[in-house]
Amino acid sequence: MDKKVILSGIQATGNLTLGNYLGAIRNWIQMQDEYDCYYMIADLHSLTVRNEPEVLRKRAMQVLAIYLASGLDPDKNTIFLQSHVDAHTKLNWILNCYTYMGELNRMTQFKDKSAKHADNINSGLFTYPVLMAADILAYNADLVPVGDDQRQHLEITRDIAERFNGIYGETFVIPEAYIAKQGARIMGLQDPTAKMSKSSTNLNDVIFLTDSPDDIRKKFKKAVTDSENCVRYDKESKPGVSNLMTIYGLIEGKSMDEIEKEFVGKGYGDFKNKTAEVVVKKVQPLQEKYYELLENPEKLREIYEKGAKKARKRANEIVNEVYRKVGLIVDE
Ligand code: AQP
């Protein structure tokens, strides 16, 4: 039986965070043997905010290097740059014509991002979910592993696919979101009520995967907790401690109960130090590989070229079928 298909990606809009790792990449690694995985660097999505061209190119390669350094095997997975596969933008246009303004108006991420980028509320920001639908549907992906913040975009993708299938007959697989129970939303260390975000202006709020061990230790030391001084999981009344417990538990493979027992009678100081140490231990080997890979642009190029070739093959077939169905003449 053919393996189920997975599609996911991360934007090249900044340094990747522990949230990107625990909420997305970590799950991708666990899926690479069982599924036929397509992992892209979402460089087109990155254009919804302003970037320095050279910086964007550099960041795209950094995201690729993080994927590889985290353990994604380029022989098992198709790893590519979104902009290298024209099928995404071709399908994007078609799907735009099958998506309603009212649906897009409901997207909470658009509202959040509009507030964050009030000086640049471009239509790309508004139609972002349609390009995301095109990314997924161009591969007929069965599963899309994402963090919790992408749930609504997955819903609209399913609606668009169902609408299209309803008009033209079975064309798209209706994709499912894969959102892990733990770690789907890693929160900021300073504001544990908001997600850890690579574009955060408060650097103490975010653990970047490339942070030095000292910076990681300092940031955990400063992490906001509460006055109870008891390591106990309670997301509502103890969001800071619960977030640290989630991070610690995911890296160490421990349940919240186990962590509570481990730290009985110990204060937050001990717990924060221990959490910082497991994070440092996790990211240090990743960073070594990451810097080594960045020294070897030829190898990175080989990987993304091979990935794009394979991605194009699958996506072009699917998008050509869509072209035929809507009444376009396919130029083969
Ligand atoms: N804090 C998080 N916890 C769990 N998962 C997260 N993801 C992001 N942050 C967390 C997941 O990582 C994947 C890639 O995300 P993205 O590149 O689409 O966007 P982003 O990292 O959320 O960052 P943006 O959009 O560039 O800017 P900010 O950071 O300002 O929002 C997704 O699967 C996401 O769920």
Order of helices and strands: EHEHEHHHHEHEHHHHH
Inertia-based shape: globular
* Average pLDDT score: 96
- Helix/strand class: mainly alpha
Distance between the termini: 29 Å
Q: Which molecules are bound besides the chains?
A: adenosine-5'-tetraphosphate
Number of strands: 5
Note poorly predicted spans: none
Main features:
332 residues; mainly alpha; three-stranded parallel beta sheet; 12 helices; 5 strands; binds adenosine-5'-tetraphosphate
Describe this structure in words.
- The chain has twelve helices and five strands.
- It has 332 residues and is mainly alpha-helical.
- 42% of the residues are buried.
- The longest helix is centred in the C-terminal third of the chain and has 30 residues, at 297-326.
- α8 (213-221) packs antiparallel against α11.
- Strands 1-2-3 form a three-stranded parallel β-sheet. The chain has a two-stranded parallel ribbon with strand order 4-5.
- Bound molecules: adenosine-5'-tetraphosphate (AQP).
- Adenosine-5'-tetraphosphate binds next to β1 and α1.
Short note summarizing the structure:
By secondary structure, this protein is mainly alpha-helical. The protein is 53% helix and 7% strand.
Give the secondary structure arrangement, pairings included.
Layout: E1 5-11, H1 18-31, E2 36-42, H2 53-70, E3 78-81, H3 87-96, H4 101-105, H5 108-116, H6 123-137, E4 143-145, H7 151-168, E5 176-178, H8 213-221, H9 239-252, H10 256-262, H11 268-294, H12 297-326
Adenosine-5'-tetraphosphate binds near residues 10, 11, 24, 146 and 147.
